[in-house]
Amino acid sequence: MPVNWKVGGLLLGLVFFVAVLLVKPIGVSTQFVILDGIIGDAVNPEIVTQTGDGFTSTNAYLAKSGGKYAKSVANPLNYSFVFVLAMMLGGFLSVMARGGLDSRERRMPTLWRANFGDSAVKRYAVAFLGGFVVLYGARLAGGCTSGHMMSGMMQTALSGYIFAAGAFAAAIPVSILMFRKEA
Amino acid sequence: MSSILLAIVLGAAFGAVLDRVGASNPNLINRMLNLTDLRLAKAILLAIGTGSALMFAGQMLGVVDVGHMSVKTAYAGVFLGGLMLGAGWAASGYCPGTGVVALASGRKDALFFVAGGLLGAAAYMLSYPAWKASGLLDKIAGGAVTLGTVPGSEYEGLTALPGDILGVVLGFGFVALAFALPERLVGQGRPHPAPAE
């Protein structure tokens, strides 16, 4: 781990605290929906439309809760969407400041290579399918690791505990079965 | 405009810390999930505990606005979605936030993760009416509730316990758990003295 767990955990906790102090709890997975909406609306401008006092959509999910997602699609320069773009900037600067990742690691993770070999196609196929299942699940659950597990459990939200129970009940057995060799 | 500035500062800080704590590194995620190196789990527990104790203590001192809380609804789909996310998290090594940070850090597999994620989110957007009709999105146990009743909060409590004090106590509990958790539960020896990058 690039920093030890005590320093890292404390810094991570401070970021979650400052976010609630100044704005609201951190969440990420909704922004995949917003980007989908932005792409969809660029292809077909009928998808998100302005109403008298807000926005709505031909897609029932974007239109739910008074069209709050439709509104974000129509105004991409909003707090939550810019937050995720900024995460990429911060992550990029941090990794560059510690010298960047080597090309082998950028191609695929060491632990994956030790267990499944060097086929990039295999790794990228699993990453793609994993991404599909992760975001489908996150939207079904109404949040992801940051929104439900970290922000939720930090606020003593019942939903955060239910989510974490489900996530680890699947993640631990799958990981133990898939990654038997240490690396 | 100031909210956009905050988004940039807080988002960048979050992305940088996810990188430094190792959460956007699939090697560390799967060493945590296969129980051979729990240092990342210790960091996550410490983070939840620190955040919780600071937020609720801040509320009790009147320096943190209770209205900033945002509690999500509990329903059966939360558990089901959690199972799906967990399986994909283990297989790919990424969750939504760490996937975008990993993409920015130059990991090529993260590009495929994010592309798959956009497709998965779109698939959910299209199938949402069916989930809604299934009843699995109907709230359970009061819906958007906290474990205790937080004074001044718009959310109801699952119990009548004072929610702010409970939040501080649970926060310290998470911190204690972070320290109590061994560095590994499976296998032997000190896990990865020189972390591979």
UniProtKB/TrEMBL annotation, chain A:
Keyword Cell membrane: yes
Keywords from the named record: Cell inner membrane, Cell membrane, Membrane, Transmembrane, Transmembrane helix, Transport
Membrane topology: Multi-pass membrane protein
Gene Ontology cellular component terms for the protein in this record: plasma membrane
Localization (cell): Cell inner membrane
Ranges that cross the membrane: 7-27, 79-101, 121-138, 158-179
Pfam families the UniProt entry points to: Sulf_transp
Family as reported in the entry's similarity comment: Belongs to the TsuA/YedE (TC 9.B.102) family.
Protein's name in the database: Uncharacterized protein
Protein's organism: Ruegeria marina
From TrEMBL, chain B:
InterPro entries attached to this UniProt entry: Sulf_transp_TsuA/YedE (IPR007272)
Superkingdom, taxonomy of origin: Bacteria
Keyword Transmembrane: yes
Keywords: Membrane, Transmembrane, Transmembrane helix
Transmembrane intervals: 39-61, 111-131, 165-182
Protein name: Uncharacterized protein
